[in-house]
What we know:
Blueprint: H1 3-21, H2 23-40, H3 47-73, H4 83-105, H5 112-132, H6 137-156, H7 161-220, H8 231-246, E1 253-261, H9 263-270, H10 272-287, E2 295-300, E3 303-309, H11 313-327, E4 331-333, E5 336-338, E6 341-349, H12 356-370, E7 378-380, H13 383-398, E8 408-417, E9 422-433, E10 436-438, H14 440-450, H15 453-474, E11 479-483, H16 486-489, H17 494-504, E12 512-516, H18 525-536, E13 541-547, H19 554-560, E14 564-567, H20 569-573, H21 575-593, E15 596-600, H22 605-614, E16 618-620, H23 630-646
Parallel strand pairs: 6-7, 9-11, 11-12, 12-13, 13-14, 14-15, 15-16
Antiparallel strand pairs: 1-3, 1-6, 2-3, 4-5, 8-9, 8-16, 9-10
Amino acid sequence: MPKNIEHSKLYQSxxxxxxxxxxxxxxxxxxxxxxxxxxxxxxNNNLHAxxxxxxxxxxxxxxxxxxxxxxxxxxxxxxxxxxxxxxxSAGCLITAALWSVYAVTFYGQFSIEEFSSTNVILAAMAxxxxxxxxxxxxxxxxxxxxxxxxxxxLLMMQPEQYKINLGSLGSCFTLIMIVSSARSxxxxxxxxxxxxxxxxxxxxxxxxIRERTQEIYVISNIDSLTGLYNRSAFLSAVAGIEREFQQxxxxxxxxxxxxxxxxxxxxxxxxxxxxxxxxxxxSTRLKSFLEYGHFMCRWGGDEFIMLVKESSHEEAxxxxxxxxxxLSLPIKLDDQTVALNATIGIxxxxxxxxxxxxxIQLADIAMYSxxxxxxxxxxxxxxxxxxxxxxxxxxxxxxxxxxxxxEFRLMYQPIVDTTGQIVSxxxxxxxxxxxxxxxxxxxxxxxxxxxxxNQVGKWVLEEACRTLAQIHQQHGNICMCVNISLIQFYDKxxxxxxxxxxxRYAIPGHLLHLEVTESLFQSEQTxxxxxxxxxxxxxxxxxxxxxxxxxxSLSVIQNMNIDYIKIDRSFxxxxxxxxxxxxxxxxxxSHSLNFxxxxxxxxxxxxxxxxxxxxxxxxxxxxxxxxxxxxxxLAYLNTAMVQESSH
Length: 647
């Protein structure tokens, strides 16, 4: 755009702004002056004419006030239109014309006082216009000519010399006002241009400084190992994407939170130098996805974050699966090959939130919820995930003092033989927190993750053996089954603790059955076998709980000399379909591997009959009894023994 045209548009837009900014005080002064002049010198001869003139003047001023309000409420782009200067100029010139109409129309009826007042007001209006309307030289000149020249010409046509002199003075005053207006207009133009140039210079300097600062900032915030953005640089870079969304330039974006599964093991076993090489190799693979115009950073450790612009759920899922497939490929490093998996949590804007930091948090929650799950390695955030995480955090915090607050208790569920005689009880831990029963499925994993399972496990063993000692005094052959976590096996004092409890309560070792899950078989077998063997030497029996739901190794079961296998309730519930085949297979194995079988989760007579037909020697479930509190369990046992003796 040529500079003259650019400056012309600048003067116009800024000039209109100055005119409207100054308009309301001028309108108010005009209204006051017209009202005083019209009503001060009113009489019966000119009553209707002056009131009519005043009403017209007031209407015109009201229209100008409304026009000013419309300008104030209009947006910046609308104010640049030429119609505003036309509307403003028309209002001013019509007002000036009304002043001249008053002077010319009522001149013949003027008293000396009204004549003097009229001339003073017209001169004052002209002088004020020179200042208030200085943003437009043309408008100021026309205003002065219209308001002063008709009265001046009229006076110069009168026979009295002093009126001729006043008319001449008015003409000279008009010329002076026009010259003054020209100077004021030039000054205003220079001021507008200088202000524009200064603003442009400052803006240019700020932009240059911002660009240089951004360059330095990005260079100093690149992750030295992977070459990706680090956390702070990433957040700075993607802030622009957040602004684009807020300004409706893009419809949304997604955040991928990528976590490498098993990276810690590589650092621990192969060393940090190998770990660094793995990160570099995987970062190179991640960079291949930047060609789609995404932002990516190393968030910390083995965590990466990627921002994906404008993608549907299907597109985001497809991209995440490609990333997982790429990261899961083997990595060749010198003379060895390593392989990792990756888990990705995804959050979407605006579906889940619009803040980058919040979306990162939500994607992290989604990733955490999916970590370690197979075969799906990615998850989209949903509100339930966050609720579950918050609940876990709340429960985990509450578990810290639960034992000291006596919130835990044990319940006992009978295990019976084929005749219905009670042979043992299983001690089941319960937690009541804030008048709510928390499921063991929730709190047991939390205790295992935090390591509190060792302390609580000792308490469970102690309480169960105290109850067993009471039962043993009256019913010598009843056993007690206690669930043991894998974490407890890693406790160096576990074996000694079990021995001390047996000795303290004078319990025959064979009456204590320790139940473990199949996850035990995935652990360090040498250490596990050694501890199991030590306890078995003291008569302690071992059961495998929930058999068939996890990792199973018959050779390990044989080597560990397991005493009991408990068939998981899921097979019993479907025993009339495929579950019956599983039950029969386990019974066949029990004969060759020399272990006994317990069916848990028995709830109906039909299930009991089918299990009995299969030769299952022991059963447990709601069909026989629900878990009972300590007094209830003792009462149930006594009643069962009385009934048995009566038969």
